[in-house]
């Protein structure tokens, strides 16, 4: 493992940081060391205050831009934009191949006012979306009023989505929602009707789906049928 230079880390116990990453494999330790070199005290704070199991998928990521992604996580953690719960869910999301979102896209959620700790999926819109300020569209767990919980309670468990051929569980519904964002056509929703945008998509079964997105990119709801 490369050495950790603590000259500019101000009162940080470098030995304690070494202990924090001692259980990682060689690649993980090297990634942690690079993170400290890149982010200084922010990197040290992230490593020292986060469980090894939470950090592991972030440090193990080796795709293009992985080093920059880790620096971005540390910087956001250091300035308070994200907390340990956000970091934990972020690690789980980038480890889950079904999420199909680039790490930077997931981090962009925080810049649009989203809650990374409850984010389930995220996607980059295909070009500018009228009515939406961000290119990042994301789905959170939500509650009874909006988000995935609302979608399931109002438009799936009531058998609306579950009436579709091949749609049997929440994962199927989630996939329909995200495919509508990726492949559907969008239109601006007038401010008088709440603002944002509506995405419409016709499934291979011939069923129509509408996903309503707030002006910041947050998925408010999704339902069968065209937007009216």
Give me the secondary-structure topology.
Blueprint lengths: L13 H8 L4 H14 L1 H9 L2 H9 L5 H13 L5 H12 L7 H9 L7 E6 L11 E5 L6 H9 L14 H14 L1 E4 L8 E6 L5 E6 L5 E6 L4
Antiparallel strand pairs: 1-2, 3-4, 4-5, 5-6
Helix pairs in contact: 2-3, 2-5, 3-5, 4-6
Largest beta sheet: what is the strand line-up? 3-4-5-6
Order of helices and strands: HHHHHHHEEHHEEEE
Beta strand %: 5-15%
Number of strands: 6
Shape annotation: elongated
Biggest sheet descriptor: 4 strands, antiparallel
The number of helical runs is: 9
- What proportion of the residues is helical, as a percent range? 40-55%
Helix/strand-derived category reads: alpha+beta
- The end-to-end distance, rounded to whole angstroms, is 60 Å
What are the segments in which pLDDT stays under 50 over at least 5 consecutive residues?
1-8
User: For the residues shown, what is the average pLDDT?
Assistant: 90
Task: Summarize the entry for a quick read.
By secondary structure, the protein is α+β, with helices and mostly antiparallel strands. 43% of the residues lie in helices and 14% in strands. It has a four-stranded antiparallel sheet.
Overview of this structure, please?
With 228 residues, the protein is of the alpha+beta class. It has 2 domains: 95 residues, no CATH class; 111 residues, no CATH class. The protein has 9 helices and 6 strands; from the N terminus they run αααααααββααββββ. The strands form 2 sheets. The protein has a 4-stranded antiparallel β-sheet with strand order 3-4-5-6. A two-stranded antiparallel sheet has the order 1-2. β5 and β6 form a beta hairpin. α2 packs across α3 and α4 packs across α6. It is elongated, with a radius of gyration of 20 Å. The N terminus is likely disordered.
């Amino acid at each position: 493992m490369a050495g950790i230079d603590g000259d500019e880390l101000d009162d940080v116990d470098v030995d304690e940081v070494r202990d924090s990453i001692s259980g990682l494999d060689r690649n993980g330790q090297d990634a942690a060391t690079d993170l400290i070199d890149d982010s200084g005290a922010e990197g040290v704070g992230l490593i020292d205050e986060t469980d090894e199991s939470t950090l592991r998928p972030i440090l193990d990521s080796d795709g293009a831009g992985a080093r920059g992604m880790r620096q971005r996580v540390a910087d956001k953690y250091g300035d308070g934009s994200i907390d340990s719960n956000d970091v934990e869910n972020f690690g789980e999301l980038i480890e889950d191949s079904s999420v199909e979102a680039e790490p930077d896209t997931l981090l962009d959620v925080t810049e649009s006012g989203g809650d990374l700790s409850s984010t389930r999926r995220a996607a980059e819109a295909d070009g500018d979306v009228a009515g939406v300020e961000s290119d990042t569209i994301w789905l959170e767990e939500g509650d009874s009023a909006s988000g995935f919980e609302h979608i399931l309670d109002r438009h799936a468990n009531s058998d609306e989505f579950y009436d579709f051929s091949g749609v049997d569980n929440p994962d199927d519904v989630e996939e329909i929602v995200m495919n509508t964002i990726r492949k559907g056509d969008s239109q601006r929703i007038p401010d008088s009707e709440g603002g944002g945008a509506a995405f419409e998509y016709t499934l291979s079964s011939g069923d129509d789906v509408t996903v309503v997105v707030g002006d910041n990119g947050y998925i408010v709801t999704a339902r069968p049928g065209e937007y009216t």
